[in-house]
Design a protein that fits this description.
By secondary structure, the protein is mainly alpha-helical. It has helices at residues 17-27, 32-37, 41-55, 61-74, 80-90, 95-103, 109-123, 130-138, 143-166. The chain has a single domain (14-177), classed as Up-down Bundle (AhpD-like). Helix 4 (61-74) packs antiparallel against helix 5. The chain is globular.
Length: 182
């Protein structure tokens, strides 16, 4: 992998420093991913914007976790699966949902359809088949939510791919949620 610096407030480009200050305010630390993204202020700013927008979608905490972790697991992201396990805990998402996502075991009803649709969009590069889309709408999801999956996947492509390139070390706060693909 490429040797990236995990920037601190002292090493980050000037334009990234306020963004890292925001990370400290939000997380009590600079997550390693943010430290790496700080190399490019526009990347860090865009990622933070997409993260905020993902949290402002019409999805519940459980549904947001399903979309995030489906992408993380499909991309085999060694950093984001543990990080989003911790985030899910902070959002009070039931551990059984997180475990099913991490282990690729079935989710209850509507959440499984959301995972299958998210995976289909991801794997088929935005071309899920008509049967999958019909199942998505049949359980009550909307066109708005279909578009919101794309928003969340854009965020996850940024973080997952950067973590692959940089081999980002998992933060101490999330190390207890370590994950490896089956």
């Amino acid at each position: 992998m490429t040797d990236f610096t995990i920037h601190t407030m002292n090493t980050a480009p000037e334009a990234s420093q306020p963004l890292l200050e925001d990370s400290i305010a939000s997380f009590g630390m600079i997550p390693n991913l943010h430290g790496i993204m700080a190399e490019s202020p526009s990347v860090l700013l865009s990622y933070k914007f997409l993260h905020t927008q993902a949290q402002n979608t019409s999805f519940s905490a459980e549904e947001l976790t399903v979309v995030w972790q489906t992408a993380n697991v499909e991309h085999a992201c060694h950093y984001c699966v543990p990080a989003h396990t911790g985030i899910a805990k902070s959002m009070k998402v039931d551990d059984s949902i997180t475990d099913a996502l991490r282990n690729k075991t079935p989710l209850p009803g509507k959440l499984e359809v959301l995972r299958e649709t998210t995976k289909a969009i991801l794997v088929d590069r935005g071309n899920p088949d008509a049967v999958q889309l019909a199942a998505f709408f049949e359980v009550g999801y909307t066109k708005q939510q279909l578009l919101e999956i794309i928003l969340i996947l854009a965020q996850k492509v940024m973080s997952n791919y950067i973590n692959h390139l940089a081999d980002t070390p998992v933060d101490k706060a999330f190390a207890k949620y370590e994950w490896h693909p089956a």
